[in-house]
Amino acid sequence: MIKFNKVTRDFARRGRALDEVSFELRKAEFAFLTGHSGSGKSTTLRLLHLADRPTSGEVRVCGFSSDLTSDREVWKLRRRVGMVFQDFRLLPGRTARENVEFALEVTGASRSEILPRANRLLAQVGLSAKGGARAEELSGGERQRVAIARALVNEPQVLLADEPTGNLDERASRGIMELFRELNASGMAVLMATHDLELIRAFPSIRTLELSEGRLVFDSSLSPAATTGGS
Amino acid sequence: MHAIREALAAVRRAPLLTGLSAGMVALALYVVGLFGLATYNLHQALTRVEERVEVVAYVRDDARDEEISMAEQDLLAMEEVEQIRFISKEEALLAAREDLPEFEDLFTGMDVNPLPASLEIVLRPGFRTPDVVARVANRLSVYPFVEDVRYGQEWVDRLYLLQRIGAMATMFLGGAFALVAGLIIGTAIRIAIFARREEIYIMRLVGATNGFIRRPFLLEGGLTGLLGGILAAAFTFGSYLVVSRAVFQLDWMPLDWILMGIVAGALFGVIASAFAVRKYLREV
Fold first, then answer.
1. Is there a contact between A150 and A91 (Cβ–Cβ < 8 Å)?
2. By three-state DSSP, how is residue B115 classified?
3. First and final CA of chain A: distance in angstroms?
4. What is the distance between the alpha carbons of residues B273 and B62, in angstroms, rounded to a whole number?
């Protein structure tokens, strides 16, 4: 589903953000991607979304290769990969339903199916009753649920989440984690970047990948000897 | 359909922003419109002066009608010549009396009409240049019945120079105004699109194609430019009315100039949008 093969990403000013990182994520697998700020988590997610390209190495996601997929074709990948962020990135002034409808409309859903599908997606994330509320009127947890509903409009095979609980309290974070687990149980691969170690410890069965200064230093799916000094 | 719906929805969602953008476009094009109005009136004034460019050949008193008539036919065959008027001695005197009433006593006391008959040669538009006028004057001077040829060489030279200065000023100033207007329109549209960059981001994120994302913005940019162009035409017309009523009568510009300005506004809007959207499409 996801394959990072000796991926290096250098930036002109920041220097090396990722250094020969390799890992795989299989179908319906759930993994945390952790590390301190600046360790390369967000760069990894941007590369997986082909919002950025590796300096060397190859990223493969849902059959799309960073070497072979042109900028014009990136939209095809984006319809297979959902993405959510710490700051939700909802359109202000629009309701929860309109935010989901917007995503459906711009990906070519027909007029007749937009409303029922938006309602179905909101129900899936537990927000049936909040469809008519404006984004600004929702709590942090509810906003993140809307963002997740929006990320699901194309029924993606992979869900990427960049610190999705970073702005949420513990209860809301738990709720979002439960939602991710449900989605994962339905067959969706989930890669969630977080530096919340307590959250990671609360879900010991979930695979953990740890980055430090751009290098993959720990992978809980491998024997401790296979990685170099994980946490 | 999505593009039209989204473009109209964007105007509805942020009418103030759209209004401000259209207002900036309108002001930028208004300056161009005023320049166009001034240029057009200058051009019209110069054309009216140019129409008075003619070559006058004074005819000897002993000239025979046949030789004058043959010369007329010969001259009319020239492509530069539009019309020839023969002014008899009597007509010349009558005109002089009308033009110079202060010398009426002098004209009344004369036994003999001292004014010569003449041929007034009117040149076609496009041939009223110093070299053509001189060529026609030279041609006239070889006829034996012609006593003298006048065409106000200095005046024609100055008029020609003025026309050339006018044309150059129009080209450079007009180009500069259009460039400044283009930059202002570009900035106005960029501001409007900057306010909606999050939408572009989300569209890219969920897998909308670039063409799908671009279309409503191009349409919106075109509509803003079109609205700005129409407003600019209205402002320019208002200025024309004020000046015509309060200062001096102006000529209003031809319809194709106005349409060209409005279309240019819409085109500027589309191009500015394309550049602005491209910037945000690259970011995600």
1. no
2. coil
3. 26
4. 76
Q: Are A216 and A210 in contact (CB under 8 A)?
A: yes
Question: Does the beta-carbon distance from B206 to A51 stay under 8 Å?
Answer: no
Q: Is A35 left (phi over 0), alpha (psi -120 to 50) or beta?
A: left
- φ/ψ of residue B195, rounded to 5: -65, -20
How many angstroms separate the CA atoms of B43 and B34, rounded?
Answer: 14
Range list for CATH 3.40.50.300 in chain A: 1-80+157-231
- Determine phi and psi for B171, rounding to 5 degrees: -65, -50
Prediction pTM value: 0.70
* Domains within chain B, CATH numbers bracketed: 2-48+160-283 (no CATH), 54-150 (3.30.70.3040)
Report the topology of domain A1-80+157-231: Rossmann fold (3.40.50)
Instruction: Decide: A161 and A144 in contact? Cβ < 8 Å.
Output: no
Check A78 against B209: CB less than 8 A apart.
no
What pLDDT, in 10s, does the model give residues A161-195? 999 999 899 899 999 999 999 999 999 999 999 99
Q: How far is the alpha carbon of B206 from chain A, nearest alpha carbon, in Å?
A: 6
* C-alpha distance from residue A181 to each of A1, A25, A160, A178, B74 (Å): 18, 16, 13, 5, 102
Which chain A residues are Cβ-neighbours of B202 within 8 angstroms? Answer: 89, 91, 102-103, 106, 150
**pLDDT per residue as tens digits for the range B129-154:** 888 889 999 999 999 999 999 887 77
Which residue type is seen at A162? D
Q: Do A106 and B210 touch (CB under 8 A)?
A: no
CA dist., res. A129 & res. A145, Å (int):
13
**For chain A, what is the HEC assignment?**
CEEEEEEEEEECCCEEEEEEEEEEECCCCEEEEECCCCCCHHHHHHHHCCCCCCCEEEEEECCEECCCCCHHHHHHHHCCEEEEECCCCCCCCCEHHHHHHHHHHHCCCCHHHHHHHHHHHHHHCCCHHHCCCEHHHCCHHHHHHHHHHHHCCCCCCEEEEECCCCCCCHHHHHHHHHHHHHHHHCCCEEEEECCCHHHHHHCCCCEEEEEECCEEEEECCCCHHHCCCCC
Element (H, E) at B97: helix B89-99
Give the residue ranges of DSSP H helices in B195-283: 197-205, 210-246, 255-283
- What is d(CA A55, CA A43) in angstroms, rounded to the nearest whole number? 12
Nearest to B205 among A72, A78, A108 (CB): A78
Q: What's the order of all strands across the beta sheet hosting B117-123?
A: B81-87, B117-123, B54-59, B146-150
Q: What is the ipTM of this complex?
A: 0.84
The encoded tokens of residue B266 equal 């819409």
